[in-house]
UniProtKB/TrEMBL annotation:
<protein>
    <submittedName>
        <fullName>Oxidoreductase</fullName>
    </submittedName>
</protein>
<dbReference type="InterPro" id="IPR036291">
    <property type="entry name" value="NAD(P)-bd_dom_sf"/>
</dbReference>
<dbReference type="InterPro" id="IPR055170">
    <property type="entry name" value="GFO_IDH_MocA-like_dom"/>
</dbReference>
<dbReference type="GO" id="GO:0016491">
    <property type="term" value="F:oxidoreductase activity"/>
</dbReference>
<comment type="similarity">
    <text>Belongs to the Gfo/Idh/MocA family.</text>
</comment>
<dbReference type="Pfam" id="PF22725">
    <property type="entry name" value="GFO_IDH_MocA_C3"/>
</dbReference>
<dbReference type="InterPro" id="IPR050984">
    <property type="entry name" value="Gfo/Idh/MocA_domain"/>
</dbReference>
<feature type="domain" description="Gfo/Idh/MocA-like oxidoreductase N-terminal">
    <location>
        <begin position="1"/>
        <end position="118"/>
    </location>
</feature>
<keyword id="KW-0560">Oxidoreductase</keyword>
<dbReference type="Pfam" id="PF01408">
    <property type="entry name" value="GFO_IDH_MocA"/>
</dbReference>
<feature type="domain" description="GFO/IDH/MocA-like oxidoreductase">
    <location>
        <begin position="129"/>
        <end position="245"/>
    </location>
</feature>
<dbReference type="InterPro" id="IPR000683">
    <property type="entry name" value="Gfo/Idh/MocA-like_OxRdtase_N"/>
</dbReference>
<dbReference type="GO" id="GO:0000166">
    <property type="term" value="F:nucleotide binding"/>
</dbReference>
Amino acid sequence: MRWGILGTANIAKKALIPAIERADGAEVVAVASSSGKEKEVAKHFDIPKAYSSYQQLLNDDQVEAVYIPLPNHLHKEWVLKAAQAGKHILCEKPAALSYRDAEEMIQTCQNHNVILLEAFMYQFHPQHERVKEIIASGEIGDVELMKASFSFSFDKSQYNIRLDPEKGGGALWDVGCYGTHSALHLLGSKPDHVQSISNVDEDHEVDLASLVTMKLENGVLVQVDCSFNTPLRNEYEIIGTKGRITVPHAYRPDANEHKGIIRIATKDGEREVVEEGDQYALQIEAFERIVENHEPIDALQFKTLENIKLIDSIYQSQNGTVRI
């Protein structure tokens, strides 16, 4: 599959372009930038074509699929334009900043017979399928509670797009979305009630830290915390009536040599399972299989819609309770 990259964000340079190079049957043939960095990036990665506008790249008939790492508020515009140009689309998370926009984006892609996948790369690492298998086996009993955490800190004295409310900033949209998405991915139920409380920065008017508590339709309780103020944590714990599962590198196993660690504790003792996988490359390969084999994408897009609906509701009722 021949890929074009719409933008030169760090996530594209550090993670996705190298992942496409590592993936089977994939190559980057074009990159575009609105900031004049396209030639620099093209030279660094030996990409044949460099465009000074995103539309020029979309007009390139050789490009079959595009990756969109643009700021959150630009996702909708360029997903729609890419769909109209007949390109399959891998869009950084969150795909949209409202449920209505996400619905429109998915419907437009369906109308133009192209695939839209939100780039929650973590879900393609094999550790999470193993977690599902352990839950299904009954080893930890009936699931009662899930706790998920994702945090990191950065210098807030300098401009950072994560602190810009007009561009979809805030800890929930940036990292909290992983915790909520993984609850949907692993527990097989939608939220019924959600309560949230946040520390909102008065200068930037975005949440620097948020705590979300949910009750799912199946009765499982979920707690998600996220922060821009605390050291790196990317983990979840699933607690059942007979034991618990702890996954300490849930969302960034690539920072642990691609190794996912699963710890299971029951009354019979503790054991550890290690699952290895290159989650960014696996995401590219899964995307290509969906496109080439016409595999169903409904379940993945359902999680996109439900997760955006959930976070949108949380922001609208910040420091309050809402029924979803």
